[in-house]
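Q: What would this chain look like folded?
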Amino acid sequence: MPYLENPDRMDRILTALNKTDWAEFVEPDDFGLAPIFEVHDKDYINFLASCWTEWLDSDPEVAASPGQNAFLPATFALRRLTRVPRTLLGKAGYYMMDLSACIVEHTYTAALTSANCALGAVEFVSRSASSSIPPNSSFALCRPPGHHAGKDYAGGYCFINNASVAANWLSSKGKVALLDIDYHAGNGTQDIFYERKDVLTISIHGDPDYEYPHYIGYADESGAGEGLGYHRNFPLPAGTDDATYLAALDESLDMIQNYEPNYLVLSTGMDTFENDPLGKFKVTRGGFAEIGKRISSLQLPSAIVMEGGYANAALGENLAALLDNFK
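A: My prediction, written as structure tokens:
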């Protein structure tokens, strides 16, 4: 089965953005681990950092051909049992949600760089907002994506929750709204902010009754504790078109306006596209342009963080159609 979260995605996006007259490219700085530890469990991050080399050290056959292998669990933990196993494969089953979050030699380095891209994006919008000098939006070209990574687990191609790390960093500077428009429910983001009210989280996605991740993302999940009422899911049916999607988006934007945030973080998945191999929605390129237009009308300092999108031939142009509204 092909691994659809591949480098061609980034190449297509860069090619499309290089054709515009408004995209300026900046390499990310290194923000260190502190912003990541504020969102993710430290033992989980340490597992991501060390599991590959531990695996090579434990198996001579794997060490002889590391480029032909990926580290995956043998079992998966039932989370009602909370003990963290001592063995490496046991930890893999505890810290990894599914088989799409396989780990190879440079996974951890890539995940850190991806998180730094998101942090660089929010640092930019924070500085721009404080100086009142436009532009006050930025795009984080993150790979791997992040919104399926929870406090202490990887899943769905995601290892560090880039948008959540970024939103948490911004939350010290003002109220934050995090809107997830990826086709799949942002289970990791929901996990991280579910009991918080300083970050409003909203996810528009395929109904988990039929779509990954299946166990989270339902309409009746609205936060808990202090976060009650500060989370909202919009699970939509298969075949959702531009009009149906935009109706859910308008309701989401009304919620954001009522919340009166200082900043917006946009988890931007393009797998709602009508020809995406992992999606069942029918959003068109014109639909993406209208989505961007309506979100940008909030006129909030906005950090746009890349998530999914696997129709590679159209990915760059689809994304550019959305981003063009934020230039």
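Residues 107-131 form the longest helix (25 residues).
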